[in-house]
């Protein structure tokens, strides 16, 4: 049974996601649909890219992923589909697939991209404002039903990417950035835990405060205490036990986290 996921900034109030699912099921009734998130901040391509990236590898081979965070809908931006590794992706060509493309390059996975020009796989009437319903949903449904990627349009190689900050090595340790703020206000950085593995004398400095050492879980400190730990994806995270690190520190995505390794 095919599996398809949807990631958007649509929210759930207005029925946009439900409409997309209706389109998908009319074309491929047997497909199972999983919602990754519909709470990406409006038009925030970076946040959408990270949300999809954090989830996609947990899905089986052959899964089709739709990602619609599309501030350029109705403009000349391309609609694309891709096979990256063993999974398929359908999205606007605005950088949403950047971290997944980087995974493929680091791990040597095959990747192929097509420009969605074959309107036989779209809805008959295409609006200027809802390509999630009219292009991405039907294309993804056809992929889930077994249509070959290259039937959807010509192969392209110049897919757009966004800039994803990387941690920098410094004389004292690392200069990292906050890459994700979750619903709890936890501050995930882009520094992989492997970069500081085995180091015990370490300090994290951000927004004028310092956090010393790493704990193994939130429950190892008292409520309200600021802690550093390794998150579920293997990255360094700053958090407030039973509270919000984002609110307590007035922190935002992109803020710098200085990582000091003490000798």
Keywords:
Rossmann fold, 2 domains, elongated, alpha+beta, 20% helix, Elongation Factor Tu (Ef-tu), domain 3, 263 residues, 30% strand, 5 helices
SS element count, helices: 5
Order of helices and strands: EHEHEEEHEHEEEEEEEEHE
The span between the termini is 55 Å
Under CATH, the topology of the largest domain can be stated as: Rossmann fold
Helix content: 10-25%
User: CATH architecture of the largest domain, please?
Assistant: 3-Layer(aba) Sandwich
Mean pLDDT: 95
Q: Which regions are unreliable across 5 or more consecutive residues at pLDDT < 50?
A: none
Write up what this structure looks like.
The termini are far apart. Strand 8 and strand 9 form a beta hairpin. The radius of gyration is 20 Å and the shape is elongated. The longest helix is centred in the middle third of the chain and has 14 residues. The chain has 2 domains: 154 residues, 3-Layer(aba) Sandwich (Rossmann fold), CATH 3.40.50.10790; 94 residues, Beta Barrel (Elongation Factor Tu (Ef-tu), domain 3), CATH 2.40.30.90. The protein is 20% helix and 30% strand. The strands form 2 sheets. Strands 8, 9, 10, 11, 12, 13, 14 and 15 form an 8-stranded antiparallel beta sheet that branches. The protein has a 7-stranded mixed beta sheet with strand order 2-1-3-5-4-6-7, with helices on both faces. The protein is α+β, with helices and mostly antiparallel strands and 263 residues long.
């Amino acid at each position: 049974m095919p599996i398809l996921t949807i990631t958007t900034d649509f929210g759930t109030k207005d029925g946009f996601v439900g409409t997309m699912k209706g389109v998908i099921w009319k074309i491929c009734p047997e497909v199972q649909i999983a919602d990754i998130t519909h709470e990406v901040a409006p038009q925030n391509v970076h946040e959408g890219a990270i949300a999809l990236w954090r989830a996609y590898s947990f899905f089986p081979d052959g899964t089709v992923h739709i990602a619609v965070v599309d501030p350029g809908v109705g403009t000349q931006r391309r609609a694309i589909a891709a096979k990256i590794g063993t999974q398929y992706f359908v999205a606007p060509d605005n950088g949403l697939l950047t971290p997944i493309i980087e995974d493929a390059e680091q791990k040597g996975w095959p990747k192929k991209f097509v420009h969605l020009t074959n309107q036989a796989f779209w809805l008959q009437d295409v609006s200027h404002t809802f390509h999630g319903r009219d292009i991405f949903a039907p294309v993804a449904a056809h992929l889930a039903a077994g249509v070959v990627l290259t039937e959807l349009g010509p192969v392209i190689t110049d897919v757009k990417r966004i800039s994803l900050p990387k941690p920098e090595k410094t004389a004292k340790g690392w200069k990292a950035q906050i890459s994700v703020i979750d619903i709890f206000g936890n501050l995930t950085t882009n520094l992989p835990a492997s970069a500081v593995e085995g180091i015990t004398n370490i300090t994290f400095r951000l927004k004028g405060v310092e956090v010393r050492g790493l704990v193994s879980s939130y429950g190892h400190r008292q409520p309200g205490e600021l802690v550093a730990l390794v998150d579920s994806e293997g990255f360094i995270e700053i958090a407030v036990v039973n509270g919000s690190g984002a609110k307590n520190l007035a922190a935002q995505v992109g803020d710098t986290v200085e990582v000091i390794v003490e000798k």
